[in-house]
Amino acid sequence: MLLAWRMWGHIILFSLLAAPVVLLTAYLMARQRASSGTPHPFRTAFADVLMVAGTLPWLWMILTPGARSTPERWTSLVPLRDLHVLTQGPFGVLVVQVGGNLLVFAALGALLPIRSARLARLTAVAAVAAAASLTVEVLQYVLALHRVSSIDDVLLNVTGAVLAAIMTKRWWAPPIPEGTVPQ
To answer: pTM here?
Structure first.
């Protein structure tokens, strides 16, 4: 875990220091939306800003080049193989890898159904998280970042987004009544 802090501590500190700016941005965006008559200005503004702010640090970490000792392009396309390998190693590495992958799209999963009634379904959250996660894994491969492009990362990213969505279910946008146009 100390190694994870050494590698990513600057991103965590930057994210914490950015929190006041993020909250101010969400508040100002909400006021602007309220003055223009946008429905649910505070819910949508805070969800929009916090989804981005809660996801960007993880993407920064994931898209940072890895150790040069790792091949430029490395794929793992057999489901659960990487997780099995992680269980054979140090417990701290398992916690960091699994925990980190569960958190990558957690903010997206938690806030997407709060933001949009059209996306207030677990299947919709899973689909958006899967598309985003696949995009990240393809980018890691295409950009030759010395990282593993793994199907297990996609599975964990989607699981984290869905679990986060379940935790925020009580605040989801209300369903769209039949025959109305969603906003």
So the answer is: 0.90
